[in-house]
Amino acid sequence: MQWTLEQLKAFTEAAEAGSFSAAARKLGKAQSRVSTAIANLEVDLGFDLFDRSAKLPVLTNAGKEMLVDAKAILQQCQRMNSRAMAVTKGEPV
User: Fold this and answer.
1) Considering 42, 44, 80, 84, which has the largest number of Cβ atoms within 10 A of its Cβ?
2) Where are the alpha helices (DSSP H) in the chain?
3) For the whole model, what pTM was predicted?
């Protein structure tokens, strides 16, 4: 599995926004990039994160579980970025 942070961001935004199009607008990306990122993440994971049978995508049970982990990973990345910024500014860590 080689998922990326871009895939996790697309996934979490789509889950929170309720659509790939809304996630794309928020991320400033084309809807096709968001869809592709999520589809590639699903391939990497080996299962569907969204049920696409309705007009709007709905998280699967596995998707709901993975959303918790994806958010935690992205939050940890933000903490690491903040710590790095503090170090570069000479602030105590």
Assistant:
1) 42
2) 5-17, 20-27, 31-45, 61-88
3) 0.90
Show Cβ contacts of residue 50 under 8 Å, excluding neighbours closer than 6 positions: 14, 15, 38, 42, 57, 58, 59, 60, 63
Lookup result for tokens 């599995």: 1
- CA nearest neighbour of 9 among 64, 47, 24: 24
Taking phi first (over 0 means left), then psi (-120 to 50 degrees means alpha), and beta for anything else, what does residue 46 get?
A: left
Q: Which of 38, 40, 60 is nearest to 51 (CA)?
A: 60
d(CA 76, CA 91): 19
Q: How confident is the model at residue 33 (pLDDT cuts 50, 70, 90)?
A: very high
| DSSP character at residue 89 | T
Supply the pLDDT for residue 69.
97
